[in-house]
Amino acid sequence: MAVSERVQQILSNVRELTDEEKAQLETELLAEDAIAERAWGEEIDRRAARALATGTTGLGRDEVRSIFAMSPADARVRLAALLDARK
Questions:
Q1: What is the b/e burial string over 13-47, where b = at least 16 CB atoms within 10 angstroms of the residue's CB?
Q2: Count of alpha carbons within 13 Å of 27, Cβ hemisphere only?
Q3: Fewer beta carbons under 10 A from the terminal one: N or C of the chain?
Q4: Residues with Cβ < 8 Å from 22, sequence gap 6 or more?
């Protein structure tokens, strides 16, 4: 996969950072990932609670695997569609 010019510029800038600055950048990026993961977990909890409250039957193994392979945004859309179809 070809790296975009924007990514090349960022990589160039990162290479110029000191080890301490790289550690700070790593900390910030991991924090962003943790925030996204926490938000995704909260979304899953909300949807599970809604599914349980409405008596929706569970998802099949293939459906779950497919959803976990998706980006969070695509997974939200797919889960919403599945839940709406079961109402």
A1: eeeeeeeeeeeeeeeeeeeeeeeeeeeeeeeeeeb
A2: 6
A3: N
A4: 14
Amino acid at 36: A
Spatial distance between the Cα atoms of 17 and 10, rounded to a whole number of angstroms: 11
- Return the pLDDT at 86: 67
Provide the number of structural domains found in the chain: 1
Sign of the alpha-carbon dihedral angle for 15, 18, 19, 20: negative
The pLDDT tens digits of the residues spanning 42-86 come to 888 888 888 778 765 677 788 888 888 988 888 888 888 887 776
Range of the domain at 17: 5-85
DSSP 40-54: HHHHHHHHHHHHHHT
- Residue 56 has a pLDDT of 59
